[in-house]
Amino acid sequence: MSNKVVIALGSNASDSRSVIHLAGRLLADYFDWIRFSEPEYTLPVGLLGSAVFLNQVAVARTQHGKQTVCRALKEIEKQLGRSPASENQGIVIVDIDLLQWNEQLLKPDDWKRDYIQRGVAAISFESAE
Known about the structure:
The chain has 5 helices and 6 strands. It is α+β, with helices and mostly antiparallel strands and about 130 residues long. Strands 1, 2, 3, 4, 5 and 6 form a 6-stranded antiparallel β-sheet that branches. A hairpin with a 2-residue loop joins strand 5 and strand 6. The longest helix is centred in the N-terminal third of the chain and has 15 residues.
């Protein structure tokens, strides 16, 4: 059985466009099928003095289990340089969050964000069936 996932990517690094692009390539290597929304700049939420974020939404299908996927997302963050030290300085090199697992919505506050709604609406799972 193929699992349906929705993923949010974000970066406020000085080279956020490159980071999001590379994160997308690593995700594409991992997932059986994946599609991405257009990247979108947004104001930071909960980070005082932070630079704007470049965000992107992805929908994917995978044969992997939920915990395996979560570990893979965290590993990609580490590969791209996410660290507590940079976050202490207000720099989020990359943030990759699992927002939906099959029909289970995760991170309800994130689902309220406009760019998440636009991103999900722009991508169809039907072509992955």
